[in-house]
Amino acid sequence: MARNKIALIGAGQIGGTLAHLIGLKQLGDVVLFDVMEGVPQGKALDIAESSPVNDFDARFTGTNSYDAIEGADVCIVTAGVPRKPGMSRDDLLNTNYKIMSDVVGKVVKYSPDCILIVVSNPLYAMAQAAYKLSGFPRERVIGMAGVLDSARFRAFIADELKVSVENVTAFVLGGHGDTMVPLSRYSTVAGIPITELIAPDRLAQLVQRTRDGGAEIVKYLKTGSAYYAPSSAATEMAEAILKDKKKILPCAAYLEGEYGIKGLYVGVPCKLGEKGIEQIIQIKLTAEEQAALNKSADAVKELCGVIGV
Ligand code: APR
């Protein structure tokens, strides 16, 4: 039986880390594509040389030629420019839209049956662009943001309560950034709602830190944005799909009336399996949460309007 094939479009910080994680988890063979000559080849070789030490069997190919991605099961797009200090994700819009247009055309040509995971920012507008440009059904174009934002929230909660991260589940809906909607009442520690364990004022601070999580790291790094946690998040999504786990994860999905929103990518809980998004889970929101989600959708709509998708 052939191994799964995973194509990574963009072999920068996230692309390279993704390749390594996918190898460590033995999810399949990896093709790393980038327009920069030598970078995908060097990273692919370096990771392949780590495989005997870490005991994983997978083929790693670095390439500047799209034909190598032919027949991929999952394509993860990280191509684009990351932000620098002082920039918002939205500042990347026009540059990354041009890159996305080029990338999606090639993905459709060489891997027409793949499931596309979009990581490039601004995430929701890029996911919407990929969906519109690809002509794929909505279940095969998924944006990565919610798993990352939830992971950040979980890390902060675990640190606050000095408990294992494994005890903490958290749900973050909506956009990536200011319009994120962390659902505190659905976030638990060993099954106990965090609202019973953390005082409201302190919880509000953790929520704000989650919203600013990406910017906090950009400020430290100065020359780029976060890549370890984003790579882990995209790997979890790819694993759920490739292993047909039917795992419920917060993802950017194209809504067609769910949560009262139509025709836009918004962060909602999705069941991921071999077909991609197999179900959008609808949970009851309070009026306040629904208003926050609508605000996220409005922000996505505005950005999509600028690039006409
Ligand atoms: N086709 C393929 N790759 C491209 C293209 C293109 N048209 N244009 C740029 N790239 C590549 C760059 O050469 C670079 O190697 O995309 C890679 C991006 O890598 P980094 O600059 O290291 O950025 P990274 O930190 O990986 O983030 C990638 O994900 O989280 C988002 O905001 C982030 O949009 C950014 C993206």
Describe what you observe in this structure.
The protein is of the alpha/beta class. It contains nine helices and 14 strands. The strands form four sheets. Strands 3-2-1-4-5-6 form a six-stranded parallel beta sheet, sandwiched between helices. A three-stranded antiparallel beta sheet has the order 7-10-11, covered by helices on one side. Strands 12-13-14 form a three-stranded antiparallel beta sheet. Adenosine-5-diphosphoribose is lined by residues 9-15, 34-36, 39, 78-83, 92, 96, 99, 102-103, 119-121, 224-225, 227, 230.
Structural class: alpha/beta
* Average pLDDT reading: 96
Describe the global form. Answer: globular
Helix share bin: 40-55%
- Radius of gyration, in Å, reads 19 Å
Count of helical stretches: 9
User: Can you list the strand order of the major beta sheet?
Assistant: 3-2-1-4-5-6
| End-to-end C-alpha gap | 39 Å
| Strand segment count | 14
User: How many strands, what sense, and barrel or not for the largest sheet?
Assistant: 6 strands, parallel
Q: Please provide the ordered H/E string of secondary-structure elements.
A: EHEHEEHEHEHEEEEEHHHEEEH
User: Low-confidence runs (pLDDT<50, min 5 residues)?
Assistant: none
